[in-house]
Amino acid sequence: MFTGIVEAIGKIRAVTPKGEDFVVSVDSASLDLSDVQLGDSIAVNGVCLTATKLPSQGKGFEADVSGETLSLTTLGKLNSGDSVNLEKALTPTTRLGGHLVSGHVDGIGQLLKRYTSGRSERFLIRPPKSLAHYIARKGSITIDGVSLTVNKLIGDDFELNLVPHTLQRTTLQWLKAGDSINLEVDLLARYLERLLQRNTTTDDNDENGDTSAATGLSLEHLAKCGFLG
């Protein structure tokens, strides 16, 4: 698990194809890896990767990237010298400054437009249609590993406001219209959808097939409690 608060901007040292997969070598730059062991998780542009090699000299690590990960993320487009957002897995004492992030990217979105708003930048992003219903105004979303708040919904698209500090400390500063980005929706949205689906199917523990006791959740109940607009 992660928080979506980027700790350092690293660089890709090398990308080595291994059949349908590849091995990525990352220069961790200012990120302290002294407390990282083989098998630990590190988020690279929002993608949870397992450290498979930690060189004894210098800063950096290697990780395997599977075909599944390549199909759902932008990691397959990385080249030597590209900058990436890095974050070590959280610990029980980590400050949760962003939101709970799994590092399991849901899909690839596209930056449609960016423009200046005061000292900040506004990003208009188009997610895959299959993810649009998870995104809510003032809800959380992760963009290339960065925890951000959704400012506005425009149809299936959504808008973000990035303050100068976020731009300076992440690779989002270099994004331009047309670029692809990794998206991870809020964990709560995923689980809520699953609970609602469960309420419309037969409870495995109910021999009579009665679905009323499955979760007690329904769209009507959520609307009544003020969770739906």
Q: Would you give an account of this structure?
A:
The structure is a single chain. This protein is an alpha+beta fold and 229 residues long. It folds into 3 domains: 8-88, Beta Barrel (Elongation Factor Tu (Ef-tu), domain 3); 107-186, Elongation Factor Tu (Ef-tu), domain 3 (Beta Barrel), CATH 2.40.30; 199-224, no CATH class. It contains 5 helices and 12 strands. A hairpin with a 2-residue loop joins strand 7 (107-117) and strand 8.
Largest sheet: 6 strands, antiparallel, barrel
Strand order of the largest sheet: 1-2-5-4-3-6
Please tally the β strands and state the result: 12
* Approximate shape: globular
Which topology of the largest domain does CATH recognise?
Elongation Factor Tu (Ef-tu), domain 3
List the helices and strands in order. Answer: EEEEEHEEEHEEEHEHH
How far apart are the termini? 30 Å
What percentage of amino acids are in beta strands?
A: 35-45%
Pathway: Cofactor biosynthesis; riboflavin biosynthesis; riboflavin from 2-hydroxy-3-oxobutyl phosphate and 5-amino-6-(D-ribitylamino)uracil: step 2/2
Lumazine-binding repeats: 1-99, 100-196
Subunit structure: Homotrimer.
InterPro entries: ATP_synth_asu-like_sf, Lumazine-bd, Lumazine-bd_dom, Riboflavin_synthase-like_b-brl
Topology:
Layout: E1 8-18, E2 21-27, E3 41-44, E4 47-53, E5 61-65, H1 67-72, E6 83-88, E7 107-117, E8 120-126, H2 129-132, E9 140-143, E10 146-154, E11 157-162, H3 164-169, E12 180-185, H4 187-198, H5 219-224
Summarize, please.
Pfam families: Lum_binding (PF00677). InterPro entries: ATP_synth_asu-like_sf (IPR023366), Lumazine-bd (IPR001783), Lumazine-bd_dom (IPR026017), Riboflavin_synthase-like_b-brl (IPR017938). This protein is an alpha+beta fold and 229 residues long.
